[in-house]
Amino acid sequence: MKIYKRAKPKRQRKGLTNYYKRIKLVKSNLPRLVVRKTDRYIITQITLSKVGGDYTYLTVNSKELSKYGWKNGFKNIPAAYLTGFLLGIKSKKIGINKAILDIGLQKPVKGSRVFAVAKGAIDAGLEIPISEEVIPSEERIKGKHIEDFKLKLLEESKLIESDHIPITSIFEKVKNNILKEIGVIKNE
Description:
alpha+beta
């Protein structure tokens, strides 16, 4: 008599899905804040698992920050925070107030971009249960480390950039533009 073994799901065999983690997220019955990183962008989504497949309520790509005046890289920590902030405001607008963070197969590194996204969504008013210890510092969120490195490079090369605008001021400007567009701050 032959004994047949049940094969593992295809996505598990290919290493694309951790079903142990996924079942915990699905059992929470909360919308998931899904954070994925590509080579150039950070993609965030609000999804809910339903019978027959996941339903995506909202998607925000860090590329959208250029509409609000962002002129720097789209996958650094300030861009991740602003992407999460934009997603949080949009999700509040459609009535989603609570979510659970889904980082997929990414390793949970303290102070990383995935937690910057979560901090942005929390600051926008979304309730996400994460520890304060894993969130990047306020200086890193505003991009001070990028600004310091840029100034160091400018000093070494002895180049003078006449139209240099610090990333920290651009960060605040973009954050205010997001708030103005959504309507939280009324235009003067």
